[in-house]
Each structure stands twice: as structure tokens, then as C-alpha cells.
Amino acid sequence: MRAVVTRVHHASVSVADTVVGRIDEPGLLVLLGVTHSDGEQHITAMARKLHELRALRDEQSCATADAPLLVVSQFTLYGDTRKGRRPSWTSAARPEQAESVIDAVVDELRRRGARVETGRFGAMMTVQSANDGPFTLLVET
User: What is the band of 118 on the pLDDT scale with cuts at 50, 70, 90?
Assistant: First the structure.
């Protein structure tokens, strides 16, 4: 599992000009990709990392600062561009697997007490954010 995590002042995700997820205060925007081998241990580890990652100001985490997360699925994080000019998507999990894994990460974050907003899996989404820093990390399990 792979995530691009950005510290934001605020962020939103829209589908067909309708906002489906929004955080209106400092928190984390999480673009989350899934590969074929991701399972229960990856779900738990990723949720823990995202919730406890000391990426907010003053080395706070979403857990310690009660800051929100906006989680957006993004299979393109597993695009392989090492050969040629056209990305290969063979490392990205199939949609039916990826959707259930992303839902499980969101569920685990909420179980941990995190405030989580989401995009809509498989939809063409518009993501807007006001980055803080900028501060962006690649998080893998």
C-alpha cells in the first residue's frame, strides 16, 4: 500500500461539481493506492501510520491534534514509468480488491477515533487543497 500524504490548511474532493468530502481545518490529504499483495496487516499498519504520523505543525499527528484526514483513492500511485512513456498499471490492484482495502483503511482510521472524509471510489474526482508548507510525504507499508 502506498500513500502520498500532504499537510493542508483545508482540502476538498468533488464529483461532478458536487463536494463529496471536505476538511475545513488543518489536517492531512491522503492519496491512497493499493497493490495486489495488500492485506489485513497492511490495512492496520497504514491506518496506524496515517493517524499517528507526526506530520502536522509542532510534530503533532492527527491522533494527538484531533486533526481530520481526507482520504482519496488513487490507483495511479502504482503506475510504473521505468520503461517507455506510457505508464503500466500492472502493479495496481483490481478495482474490486482496491475498493475493499481502501474502505477497510478508512474503517480502521475511524475505529481508532480519527475524523475521516473520503472521495468516491472509481469516480472522476477534482481534488482541491491549500498545502501547508508544502509538506508532502510518501508513506508505504
Answer: very high
Q: Alpha-carbon Rg of the chain, whole angstroms?
A: 14
Catalytic: which of 6, 35, 75, 118?
75
Q: From CA 51, how far away is CA 2, in angstroms rounded?
A: 15
> What digits encode the pLDDT tens for the residues 24-83?
999 999 999 999 999 999 999 999 999 999 999 999 999 999 999 999 999 999 999 999
C-alpha 16/C-alpha 67 separation (Å) is 27
Return the DSSP state at 17: T
Q: How would you label 76-100 residue by residue, b for 16+ Cβ within 10 Å and e otherwise?
A: ebbeeeeeeeeeeeebbbeeeebee
The per-residue pLDDT for 114 is 98
**Would residue 76 show up in a list of annotated catalytic residues for this protein?**
yes
- 75 catalytic residue (yes or no): yes
Mean pLDDT of 102-122: 98
Q: Which of 6, 35, 74, 118 is catalytic?
A: 74
Annotated catalytic residue within 18, 35, 60, 76: 76
